[in-house]
């Protein structure tokens, strides 16, 4: 949906509200200037013959409350798809857009017969379910602030919490792009001036955000496609390394059914096992992923990854070899 169309829908909703609407008031709500509001109202009058009038007592208002914007023609299927899209965003992306989507869909639904809308809602509620894993506490204001900064190529200041060190830091970042990994993990990818390299930041770990009065130019050496293809899950940085992992026959079907990485190559073995090869930056996420398959996976290389697995398994063995006190139930 274009920004102009979104603004027209918002103006339409304001004109139908009981509050007195003026150009300055609507401009403040929509965060545009008064001239933009007046141009949009003139557009509604000229293009769609909208019955918009202004009076000192009522401000801008519709003289015919039954008039509807004819600019949007949606089939039941299209509106249903939008409704499901809203449900998916609510479930998977931290609800950053859910209030705006709900409002837009409700306005669009006004163009369908009431019973049709009720039927669509019932199907969405009773026949289709979306479920995510662990939820994130995403602040919509921070997310939208990053959207604006990335679009305007504006540098931002962030106060960031690093979970691995349980510490806070402050830094200036050039926001290159926003990435939602697996639907529930929102990331800011950008150039960190503190580390002098492109880094990933979990958006829900950004405690504070300020837009700085400093424009930036994206590093011409940064290629989004190449950068994303070298990453396994969400770990970025480090020297590219080629890993080889063997999966036994019972585990192999789960490896074959997905594409885990853009560089992956699978080598089939006569006994039904399979060897996966891929080139990645960073080994920590690979280590955690391999551990999830237990004895069904074995690292063949590189030595650095093999040592990481050995150390982790030894530490786990030590941890579980100690006697664990059992609490008595009351």
From TrEMBL:
Q: Which Gene3D superfamilies match?
A: Winged helix-like DNA-binding domain superfamily/Winged helix DNA-binding domain
Give the protein's recorded name.
Answer: WYL domain-containing protein
The organism of origin for this protein: Vasconcelosia minhoensis LEGE 07310
Domain WCX residues, every copy: 240-316
Question: Locate the WYL domain: which residues?
Answer: 146-210
Instruction: Tell me which InterPro entries the record gives.
Output: CBASS_pafABC_assoc_protein, PafC-like, WCX_dom, WH-like_DNA-bd_sf, WYL_dom
PANTHER family attached here?
PTHR34580, SLL5097 PROTEIN (PTHR34580:SF9)
Q: Name one Pfam family in it.
A: WYL
């Amino acid at each position: 949906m274009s920004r102009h169309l979104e603004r027209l829908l918002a103006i339409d909703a304001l004109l139908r509200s009981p509050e007195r609407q003026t150009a300055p008031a609507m401009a403040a709500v929509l965060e545009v200037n008064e001239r933009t509001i007046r141009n949009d109202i003139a557009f509604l009058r000229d293009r769609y013959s909208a019955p918009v009038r202004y009076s000192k007592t009522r401000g801008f208002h519709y003289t015919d409350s039954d008039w509807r914007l004819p600019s949007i023609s949606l089939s039941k299927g299209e509106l249903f798809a939008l409704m499901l899209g809203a449900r998916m965003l609510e479930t998977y992306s931290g609800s950053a857009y859910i209030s705006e989507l709900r409002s837009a869909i409700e306005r669009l639904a006004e163009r369908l017969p009431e019973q049709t809308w009720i039927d669509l809602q019932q199907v969405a509620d009773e026949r289709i379910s979306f479920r995510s894993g662990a939820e994130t506490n995403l602040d919509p204001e921070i997310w939208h602030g990053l959207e604006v900064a990335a679009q305007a190529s504006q540098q931002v200041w962030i106060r960031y919490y690093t979970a691995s060190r349980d510490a806070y830091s402050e830094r200036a970042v050039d926001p290159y792009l926003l990435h939602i990994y697996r639907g529930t993990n929102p990331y800011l990818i950008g150039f960190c001036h503190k580390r002098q390299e492109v880094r990933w930041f979990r958006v829900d770990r950004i405690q504070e955000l300020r837009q700085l009065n400093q424009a930036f130019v994206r590093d011409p050496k940064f290629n989004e496609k190449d950068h994303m293809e070298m990453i396994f899950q969400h770990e970025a940085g480090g020297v590219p390394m080629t890993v080889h992992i063997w999966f036994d026959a019972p585990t192999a079907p789960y490896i074959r059914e997905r594409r885990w990485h853009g560089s992956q190559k699978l080598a089939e073995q006569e006994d039904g096992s399979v060897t996966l090869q891929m080139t990645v930056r960073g080994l920590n996420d690979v280590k955690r992923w391999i551990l999830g398959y237990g004895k069904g996976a074995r690292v063949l290389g590189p030595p650095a990854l093999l040592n990481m697995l050995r150390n982790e398994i030894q530490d786990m063995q030590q941890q579980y070899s100690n006697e664990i006190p059992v609490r008595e139930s009351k």
